[in-house]
Inverse folding.
């Protein structure tokens, strides 16, 4: 890094602090074909926490048949004892919740869809049926004192349906809050959003009684739009941003190698804006370079590439 | 492309129209080692114009020894007769201007530096000496009725000096305007800017009497920041944005393959915001894929990759 860069210049209307919800170990790795050894996953999470990430989505309790990469959840979680970060896990249904609770998990997430096409493709259910499936999961988790995040996928566009009406996003968001979700993450699963659209969705959610304090945004960089959409969301009051170390992960429905917003690119912008994240960019970049070595290909993050030449 | 995407949602405070200053044929190609045949360059420019780009920086009249890739300027320009676009060219000095004027060029650009280190490295002069060198070039061009653009490089950071004081940018900008430049392009040559910094520089320029109507921005995507910085500049009144088709080009001083903001990623955002550019994204992407074939490597533009799988 060049001393004194990025230059810190705050901007009015933006928050002092943003919480990054790191999704690399779960969302980033889940589509990797070659199974990453559980020891490497544990080390990855430990390094992310050491770099200052305070929330790290660790794994998924989906049936091993569907996501073989994360079939080691029962082995992974006990290896993370003592990691100084919140470690939410994805839980698809009641069986997954039982497995997570048996391991002492304190935070879970359910993965819903705003569109019928993706609910059918991903969950083999209608949107309403999937919400019914989540209802007992959320209720049981809450009774156990477990925090629940609700993911809403395809909030800005869908490969089958095209543009998604903002009212449809608001309806599903309202339902997930009513089920008892503590936080909602608005996913641009195929990366098609632009800043005005982000503002329109957030405004519609506000009008539907969804407080912005309970929202996170989850942008994909498929069309290079993730960071400017994040900036738009911050201007609208969002304070929690999902990102993936090194830009790991991709959506199998997009014809592109690029996936999640890279945590490093986000931290560069937030550092420049003087917005606290608690993350040390140098340590984070070193972690992504180390992980890229295990995966055998360079990180797609622009910031990682600029700061650390990778010979892969 | 998926029908109906990006969804068009305008945002208050942004312009109705942006003029894209396409720099691919000059800035994008100048660092390519293998010389691109002049016929391919002419075809590239013709295709860019057909895709709706109204300003295309065509080549440079720098001494062929320094930029061998653009040594064919005298052959290229006559091949562009009838291309329906403004075709500015870079001109380093009086000799370059003579060559350009002899070919009937109607718009030129001079390439200055805000920092002493880069002026020394790139021009082997101090900043003041380089401005003295430009003075007769600008004066002669203006007398001939030729429009002059002034590039300011290293406006946001410099690999040797780190952060660049905003007052230093304003001073050089003011001097270039006083010399007679019609338009100034603020370059983030190493891609380190963030949105608050962009606002601070534009505010300082306004205070120094540089009208925003005469400004363009030229962001590099080295750290993934180019598009969010562009959004910040649009909010501050900038209406001209430099970009490079397919993201062609890179800065030899940055350890990264990524260079200029990709025109396609910019157009995706502006299309979504309902901001007119006159550009047809499908034709532009096809042009970048065609050019990537000639260069033998895939375009780094996220949008190009998402819209057109490239087998390179």
């Amino acid at each position: 890094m060049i001393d004194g860069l990025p230059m810190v210049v705050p901007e009015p209307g933006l928050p002092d602090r943003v919480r990054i919800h790191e999704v690399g170990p779960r969302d980033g790795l889940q589509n990797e074909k070659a199974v990453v050894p559980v020891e490497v996953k544990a080390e990855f999470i430990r390094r992310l926490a050491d770099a200052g990430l305070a929330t790290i989505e660790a794994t998924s309790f989906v049936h091993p048949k569907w996501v073989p990469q994360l079939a080691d959840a029962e082995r992974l979680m006990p290896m993370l004892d003592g990691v100084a970060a919140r470690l939410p896990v994805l839980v698809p249904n009641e069986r997954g919740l039982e497995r997570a609770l048996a391991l002492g998990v304190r935070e879970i997430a359910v993965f819903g869809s705003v569109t019928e096409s993706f609910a059918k493709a991903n969950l083999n259910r209608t949107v309403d049926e999937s919400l019914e499936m989540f209802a007992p999961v959320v209720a049981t988790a809450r009774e156990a004192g477990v925090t629940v995040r609700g993911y809403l996928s395809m909030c800005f566009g869908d490969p089958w349906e095209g543009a998604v009406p903002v009212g449809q996003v608001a309806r599903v968001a309202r339902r997930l809050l009513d089920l008892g979700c503590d936080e909602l993450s608005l996913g641009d699963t195929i990366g098609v959003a632009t800043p005005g659209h982000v503002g329109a969705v957030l405004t519609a959610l506000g009008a539907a009684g969804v407080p912005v304090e309970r929202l996170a945004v989850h942008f994909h960089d498929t069309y290079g739009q993730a960071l400017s959409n994040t900036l738009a969301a911050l201007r609208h009051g969002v304070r929690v941003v999902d990102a993936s170390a090194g830009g790991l992960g991709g959506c199998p429905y997009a014809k592109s190698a690029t996936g999640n917003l890279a945590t490093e690119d986000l931290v560069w912008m937030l550092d420049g804006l003087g917005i606290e994240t608690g993350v040390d960019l140098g340590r984070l970049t070193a972690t992504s370079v180390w992980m890229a070595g295990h995966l055998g290909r360079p990180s797609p993050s622009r910031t990682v590439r600029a700061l650390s030449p990778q010979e892969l």
